[in-house]
Amino acid sequence: MKTQRREFLHSVAAACLAAFCVSVQAEPDLLQPDEVFRVSARRVDARVVELEYIIAPGYRLYRDRFSFKTDNPAVTVAGVDLPPSLEKFDKAIGQTMRYYIDRVAVRVRLAGSSQTVKLVATAQGCAAIVGVCYAPITKAFSVPPMGGKQG
């Protein structure tokens, strides 16, 4: 009797494990953050750096989750220009969020002295299909001076 019960429990456990494995395999594979949100930076003029985010299909980058700072108090972020965004209730966060898909160009205006500075950009997004949000992603860019005094 004990052997039959043990075999039964093993078969139930195996069936449950198989069902779990099937459900895990059915979930789409999530990409790594660097694959989902690719970002590059270029100086547009003496006071502006443009960051271009390329967003993988099925993912969103949140408009209100951008932040920018420099590593040098002599050069500060004077402002950030964001284009219009899409808007939708996000079940993963539980509120209406403004977001970008495909790509977005963000212009960061700098003030202060003209010198090489490290611009630190932070952004956050999610996998829209499965409702999984990524931790904030931070990238640093060395921004060379572009002639003349900024400010």
TrEMBL record:
Keywords from the UniProt entry: Signal
Keyword Chloroplast: no
Signal peptide segment: 1-26
SUPFAM superfamilies: Thiol:disulfide interchange protein DsbD, N-terminal domain (DsbD-alpha)
Keyword Signal among record annotations: yes
Residue ranges constituting the Thiol:disulfide interchange protein DsbD N-terminal domain according to the UniProt record: 28-143
Transmembrane domains' residue ranges: none
Organism superkingdom: Bacteria
PANTHER family on file: THIOL:DISULFIDE INTERCHANGE PROTEIN DSBD
Protein name: Thiol:disulfide interchange protein
